[in-house]
Amino acid sequence: MSPKNTSDAVLMNSVPAKPGKRFPMRLEYDASRTRSPWWSPVLSIILALLLCAVFIAANGMSPITVYEKMFRGAFGTSYGFTETMVKAIPLLLCGLGIAVAYRISVWNIGAEGQLTVGAMAATAVTIYFPDLSSFWSITLMLVFGTAAGALWGLMTAIPRTHFGVNELITSLMLNYIALLALDYVVFGPWKDPKGFNFPGSPMFTAAQSLPVLGTTRLHIGLIFGLVAVAIYYLMIKFTRWGYELRLIGANPTAARYAGIHIKKHIIIVMLISGGLAGIAGMAEVSGVTHKLMQGISPGYGYTAIIVAWLAKLNPLGLIITSILFGGLIVGGYSVQTIGLPSSISEMLQGAILFFLIAGDMIHRFRIRRSA
Amino acid sequence: MQDPSVEMRGIVKKFGSVTASDQVDFSANAGEIHALLGENGAGKSTVMSMLSGVYRADEGEILVHGLPVKIRSPKDAARLGVGMVFQNFRLVQSLTAAENIVLGEKSSFWRGNKWIKNKHREIEGLAERFGLKFPVDRPIWQLSVGEQQRVEIVKTLYRGADIIILDEPTSVLTPGEVEQLFATLQVMKQAGKTVIMTTHKMKEVMASSDRISVMRKGRMIATLATAETDELELARLMVRREVEITRQEREASVGEPLLVVNNLDVIADHGRKVLDGLSLKVCEGEIVGVAGVAGNGQKELAEVLTGLRTWKNGDIEFDGQPVKSASVRGAIDSGISHVPENRMKSGLAGRLGSVDNLLFKSYRSDEHSKFGFLKAAKNRSWSQALVERFNVKTPELDTPVQQLSGGNQQKLLFAREVSHQPKLMVAVHPTQGLDVGATAGVHDLLMELRSTGSGVLLISEDLDELLQLSDRILVMYNGSIIGESDHEHADREHIGLLMAGIQNKEASAI
Q: Among all residues of chain A, which has the CA nearest to that of B417?
């Protein structure tokens, strides 16, 4: 197909060719270059910072000052840093789930909904079994949260494997269903009777809350995330399952010829993906908000897509990018004090993803001297 | 004698180390239907792709209407009035036929109802003139394959092509549609167009063309007037040997029956019967060659035997055991290995290194993994040993295999498939796209398998290869075996005719 993709530099030359009038370079498409270099995420971040600097400057502020303020807010103080980590936890868990699915090209964009149902299931434990011991509360909340997220993932997987329904659509649609179900329970059956009619479940008891570090809001969910990353790393690298995922990711046809059941793997991967997002939801209600309420997630499930992509699905990279994006969210709040909207951080997030994807595309072209 | 409208002189095209077109001369006249005949891989499509600007020739010159031209892109070709109808159509599924045809036209900015109506009328007129009926205002996905082809043809006509190339136009058509197509070609011919059609079907060539050029293995063999030749001569030209091929020396070592297939029926994805009462037998220590033109069920046969496809009726017995259902793992475990048709598409994972690619079929065994964990160090040394034994040239064990040469990729694939001592190997076009040295290497490996008592089912379109290696040759046509000969009596002309589906008396009386 290469001729279709060559640039106009080739096509410009009318027939018959006049010697000496040809453009000396041409672009050549090389579909085999699917892996972009390690520095492309770094370059994407730099370009995103430069692009957003233009907008900041247009608002009459110095980009340097703003970026410095953001960085200090996110990483400069111990309060800021723990807040960054608090945001990084759901990003890490959701991002990990997304990375597992993306490894075999299952495009799950439903982490937001999977997180939400996870949070709801964990809350259900506090409502229907209010008097359990601390151990049993947390364990049950974790199990229910994971199971609910996994089930939500399964609802994307089954239509894909059995009816060929595009998972992008089902997972996205299920997000809205989850969010509206959340609205229903916090306005309706689970509304706190002592909550002055504000939507939201009753506050969790201490037994229903995850332990935190000192006086900060940093909770033990961080350990969940790190353990999950470690397990994922080991599984991908050393197990038969990891090998099978690698094979499906690299060439699904060849995997089928090697006797691997791809449908089975899609289901497994979506269960894991949803389950991890469910854990993130459980950790949010139990560790941070201590009650179920509207807007339990400010878009963690979507931001996690960028986190996973920026990490190139690499488990160690995920830790770095989730902290980076946690910092971006916290930094966004801190620039509000100097009169910029916090949406500057969303703009940065979007710009990073834009440059990253553009980089992957551009990488497939080479500049060649015309023969 | 008129001047040719297209002339190609000394065209050379190489893909890596493989010469697809070797000093090809070709010419076609206005007002004639010129068939380019040859087996698959003979270089027909390559030569035509150079005329239509998809490829560029390494050497040689092209003259259109007597003027030397440089064709660098399909756009250049279109400007010269050369249009090509590809085997797989280049149509936008969601646009209507008319929209597809005017696609890319730059003449008008505003495209209101009136403009569209005019275009519809113009296209309908053009279509009617050439006897090409299709609904102009329906989206492509609603049209039959035959109708889609008509849209493609009208597209080239609409763009003012007077040299029209059709690449294997009949391969997708029903017999009725073929008749219609030929009628259209006659009209185009009357209109003074140059019609060039590539094909490997002799009957159609005889029925429709004025002149025939025969290609074989990248060379132009002969150009004949259709009226002065016959199918027998064409078959001879298509398959004639260039050099005396040396048969691989062998001892008779045929053992017990290994694979017995009886009356196998297979229905393809679109409900067509692709294998029709097929029966065959492969014994231990025997290479059975399956000859046939592509698309006669060879691919499906290989898929059934390797567990990738289910069958409707019939029995398969392997190694004394009846095979009950299609299972890839079952096939692998019972000792059937598979060298698939397209190694990079279904045989190897190009992004992964040699170790991962070698483990494909054996990673589940205790030797390579335990409790779900791969034995990394052991697998590495095992891979290293295989790479050395099969002489695969790779910079490192982890180098993505897509960076290896075709020959080394195939060696790696064979290393994997031979490493677990298969009882039966199903090899499909195992030397396609390989150069002479690599081909010889693959042949040696197949002979080695035979001498160790394994059975080989060799599916190939390369008759030389089949004659060289096979103990028996079966000819496949329309989903069944229509002829068989052992290697002492194998006759390439006879096989060539059978491949074309011709079973007349003079041919079968051998």
A: A258
Whole domain around residue B152: which residue ranges? Answer: 4-239
Same domain, B118 and B266: no
Q: How far is B51 from chain A (nearest CA, A)?
A: 13
Which residues, 6 or more positions from B411, have their beta carbon under 8 angstroms from its beta carbon? B390, B391, B392, B438, B441
In a domain, B247, yes or no: no
pLDDT digits (tens, 9 = 90+) for A249-277: 999 999 999 999 999 999 999 999 999 99
Nearest to A259 among B69, B329, B356 (CB): B329
* Closest to A177 measured CA to CA, from A113, A120, A110, A124: A113
- Are residues B112 and B176 both part of a single domain? yes
Contact B351/A240, CB-based, under 8 Å?
Answer: no
The reply to whether B293 and B225 lie within a common domain is no
> How deeply is B183 buried, as exposed, middle or buried, from its count of CB atoms within 10 A (0-12, 13-18, 19+)?
middle
Assess if residue B351 is contained within a domain. Answer: yes
* Chain segment B116-168, per-residue pLDDT in tens: 888 888 899 988 888 888 888 888 888 877 888 899 999 999 988 899 999 88
Assess whether B384 and B458 both reside in one domain: no
B356–A243 C-beta distance less than 8 A: yes
Verify that B290 and B310 share a domain, yes or no: yes
Claim to verify: residue B409 and residue B467 sit in the same structural domain: no
- The tally of domains found in chain B comes to 3
Mutation target among B75, B354, B399 for the A interface, most CBs of A within 10 A: B75
Q: What is the DSSP letter of B69?
A: E
Q: Closest Cα of chain A to B507: distance in Å?
A: 39
Q: Supply φ then ψ for residue B288, to 5 degrees.
A: -105, 120
Cβ(A348)–Cβ(A328) below 8 Å: yes
Query: Do the Cβ atoms of B361 and A259 come within 8 Å?
Result: yes
Q: Are residues B185 and B303 in the same domain?
A: no
